[in-house]
């Protein structure tokens, strides 16, 4: 029962499982058919092994592993043959000592290189395979003089295995990690927008419980996004994404979305129990706060929608005109409100709310800038209704009826 | 030059690289010496391969991979032999079809199982190796009737390789991931404490720049901590850590530390430009805020110190007595302050500061509770000076000269 639910939650899990089975069965055919078996020898089993370790959920991960494995095997095979020949010059006593020294040095140097963050992000697997193949070729060379055959067979079988994995991964219902990253970042911004719109809507607040916890997932999305961007760079152009799609820009937007989420999280701690409008002035400030929350939420939702459709949004200034007007209005209300009560303590929650919301408005503007930058770097299509960035429209004179907030 | 710096930054990277070289050279000896070679046959190369893929930076990761690999090879070898025998009953035409069907089904089912979060966290590698070994044994069985020998040799060589990796990893300057997790969580709390103490110290604020960005790293530590806790559970007892050390409690503390860090991050946006005491009342509130920040910082630093030394801290109530007194003082100041200016806007930053600090004080208390819980679950030793939890001391009558703050 729970297994079925788990599969239905994301049917791609079931599809992926069938894809792995298919690729593995396909590559096993190499072993079944005698002509191929004779060609590759007992090492044909490396092709099976390659499929199992290279096949990943997304195209980017599979391609990254496959390319790493193929290139590393090729280069390390060459090094291994070289080491074997060097060592065999001092046959017989010096050879095992030299081989052991080579293995030790290569393993230590390559392992150290793997610690460098840039290497770790993209080539970790390749460097591991490099050590592996170098050891296999140079060590087996001592026993088996057919070192060339060994290196050649290992390379061919790995080419066959990697290609099978990549082809099945791309041809049958491919999961593009770049698209996943795109959707993740869009959904994160959308969730923040939903929360802010919900927070701005006083009625739904009074009903309680309508504000979800969706923004919480944004808080911890950093390592996931970075990993996805690294993998996305292995993917060729597909669908609406070109080869040189600016994946790094998604990380920039993701970072800003997280900054916004920290503040939204602070906001959620000011929910019902705290904010109780104490008097007419309090109500005015609260209304302006809710208005600002709604407008920021709308801007974020609009940005998310444009990005999801890969349409070029309006210029950043036009996008944030409404939220900026609401922020100005809140500042004006704060500036002109008279406070005729003695006790500062009653004022703290509402003042804190205003301060956080003004910061959220600022972050919203930075997110708008980053999204506009993405749309230009990624050559999103201009929407029919959107104003092209070359001809910025003058900011709307009276953007909004600012003081008639939602409270 | 940069390589040298990178090595000096964390010398364990250099040590680890030598350890990998050592283990790999050691296991290559199996291949050199003829008696061993004759015993294991050409499959001795699996031992080399195992060392390369199993050897990880920490003991927990190496042990986890090694155990996963050994158990999965053993079980999958059995399944593979079973599948081979079943298939060979319908020799010759049915056999390849049956083998292909077995491989397909096992690969699909096991791949699907790997998606379950609990499996993924601890047994992902084992399930991968299960598919691998099952395919190798059942598929090669079709060509090579010595399927028992194949399964047996694969298991023996993998035992040799895994043991070599684990022994070298544990014996030569071991890196215990549990200790790393312990230190990471302690350092995170310490960084938050440092920041709050620094924030409370008005003079250093005026000099500017003394407040670091150390708390930023706490914000994104979630996935790292979870990964470490998963690996730590593979480690045997070592040094001051027992086998059943409550690693999950560290995740609880880590989550609270992150909540605190979100608020500290909000605090850092109220630094110099915003907070300008406007009058005598503003100065009083600011002084009380700084006092509270200092006290929260001291509590966090004390908690971090006790945890680092694995000493039992004072009971939670006694730990937070000073910060609670400072929070009460801030509330009192807010409650009694008279606000004789008209404009609300000048009040917003200081009110927001007070609100955030009161929340930080609350989170500090929850961190204290969680640390005390850890110290009891992990059987930390009682410090000489600490009061045992069975005899709680009465809270100090006059905890602090509360209003003479640092401003």
Automatic annotation (TrEMBL), chains A, B:
One cellular-component annotation, GO: membrane
Keyword Thylakoid: no
Lineage: Eukaryota, Viridiplantae, Streptophyta, Embryophyta, Tracheophyta
Source superkingdom: Eukaryota
Pfam families associated with the record: ALMT (PF11744)
InterPro entries, sorted: ALMT
Similarity comment: family membership: Belongs to the aromatic acid exporter (TC 2.A.85) family.
Protein name as annotated: Aluminum-activated malate transporter
Region Disordered, annotated ranges: 382-407
Record-annotated membrane-spanning stretches: 14-33, 45-64, 71-90, 96-113, 125-143, 155-176
Any one of the GO BP annotations: monoatomic ion transmembrane transport
Keywords: Ion channel, Ion transport, Membrane, Transmembrane, Transmembrane helix, Transport
Keyword Electron transport in annotation: no
């Amino acid at each position: 029962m729970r297994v079925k639910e788990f599969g239905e939650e994301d049917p791609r899990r079931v599809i992926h499982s069938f894809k792995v089975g298919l690729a593995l069965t396909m590559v096993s055919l190499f072993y079944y058919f005698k002509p191929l078996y004779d060609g590759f020898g007992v090492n044909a089993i490396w092709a099976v092994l390659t499929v199992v370790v290279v096949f990943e959920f997304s195209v980017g991960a599979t391609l990254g592993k496959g390319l790493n494995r193929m290139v590393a095997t090729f280069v390390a095979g060459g090094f291994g043959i070289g080491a074997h020949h060097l060592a065999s010059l001092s046959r017989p006593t010096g050879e095992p000592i030299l081989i052991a020294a080579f293995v030790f040095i290569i393993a230590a140097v390559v392992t150290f290189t793997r610690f460098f963050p840039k290497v770790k992000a993209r080539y970790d697997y390749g460097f591991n395979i490099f050590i592996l193949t170098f050891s296999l070729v140079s060590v087996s060379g001592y026993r088996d003089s057919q070192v060339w055959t060994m290196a050649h067979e290992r390379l061919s079988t790995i080419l066959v295995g990697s290609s099978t994995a990549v082809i099945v991964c791309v041809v049958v219902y491919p999961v593009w990690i770049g698209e996943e990253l795109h959707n993740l970042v869009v959904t994160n911004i959308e969730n923040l927008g939903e929360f802010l719109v919900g927070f701005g809507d006083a009625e739904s607040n009074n009903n309680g419980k309508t504000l979800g916890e969706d923004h919480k997932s944004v808080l911890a999305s950093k390592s996931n996004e970075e990993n996805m961007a690294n993998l996305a760079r292995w993917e060729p152009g597909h669908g609406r994404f070109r080869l040189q799609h600016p994946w790094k820009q998604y990380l920039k937007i993701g970072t800003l979305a997280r900054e916004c989420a920290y503040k939204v999280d602070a906001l959620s701690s000011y929910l019902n129990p705290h904010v109780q409008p104490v008097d007419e002035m309090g109500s005015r400030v609260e209304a302006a706060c809710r208005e600002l929350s709604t407008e920021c939420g709308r801007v974020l939702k609009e940005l998310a929608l444009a990005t999801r459709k890969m349409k070029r949004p309006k210029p950043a200034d036009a996008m944030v005109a409404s939220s900026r007007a609401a922020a100005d209005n809140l500042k004006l209300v704060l500036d002109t409100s008279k406070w005729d009560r003695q006790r500062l303590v009653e004022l703290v929650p509402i003042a804190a709310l205003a301060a956080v919301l003004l910061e959220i408005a600022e972050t919203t503007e930075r997110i708008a800038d980053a999204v506009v930058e993405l749309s230009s770097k990624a050559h999103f299509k201009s929407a029919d209704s959107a104003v092209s960035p070359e001809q910025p429209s003058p900011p709307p004179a009276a953007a909004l009826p600012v003081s008639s907030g939602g409270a």
